[in-house]
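## retry 2 of 3
previous attempt timed out at serialization; input unchanged, resubmitting
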Amino acid sequence: MNASVAPVVIDALIRRGETVATAESLTAGLVCAALTEVPGSSAAVRGGLVVYATELKATLAGVDPDLLATRGAVDPEVAAQLAAGARTRCGADWGIGLTGVAGPGGQDGVPPGTVHLGLAGPGVSITRELRLSGDRAAVRAGSAEAALLLLAEQIT
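## retry succeeded, writing output
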């Protein structure tokens, strides 16, 4: 992962007086970990939810259980609801949500490398689909970096 993205995000959040929280599935906390490696990040990072199991997406992050039942966990609307849930449940200005398939195999007919990002913030709700290649570690790292870049696009 490009280590220079996290400091830029933290600096921008602090300058703006804003905070961020995450709800992460396939990355299992990598985004929050990258952010909190930055000195002074406690001024901007509220926390994160690791919602690896599908039912935790509903119970911890507030994703609609009917959506999960009908469309599955790897879906753009799930990513949007994860982002909104992180924002609401952690009391942050910005929420980042990630769901996808890191591999090596697919999940529910979704091929490995398929990732959905969600970003929720003041007047903002964005989803982005990624098709990443490489092994599990590469997909997870690429997902985390893309999530930080998505937030950076909105605040820098």
